[in-house]
Specification:
The structure is a single chain. It is built from 4 helices and 4 strands; from the N terminus they run E-H-E-H-H-E-E-H. By secondary structure, the chain is of the alpha+beta class. The chain has one domain. The chain has a 4-stranded mixed beta sheet, sandwiched between helices.
Length: 98
């Protein structure tokens, strides 16, 4: 599975923490680290209906999870179900919104 995100996003930082905590080693692409990664993500985001609400409401759409067979979701629990991982537990969340 590939995960698009940015280290300035709280949900992405939480994903990275859980990825490490569970020793999953999922591929994480930081879209704000270089323009190639950003372009790759934007091509996906601009063409896929799953991002419609994000585009219309000024959201970004990260973290974004892409399965090996090209399913796309913005829901970490759904993405984890693809790799037989249980849903996120409250005690796994590193940062909370104020």
């Amino acid at each position: 599975m590939k995960v698009y995100g940015s280290d300035i996003c709280i949900d992405c930082r939480n994903f990275k923490h859980i990825n490490k905590l569970r020793d999953l080693n999922l591929e994480y692409t930081n879209i704000t680290a270089d323009t190639t990664a950003l372009r790759e993500f934007l091509m996906l985001r601009d063409k896929n209906d799953i991002f419609k609400d994000c585009r219309e409401n000024g959201g970004i759409g990260i973290p974004c999870f892409v399965s090996d067979d090209n399913k796309i979701t913005l829901d970490i629990d759904e993405a984890f179900s693809w790799i037989d991982q249980p849903p996120i537990r409250e005690d796994e969340i590193l940062e909370r919104r104020e």
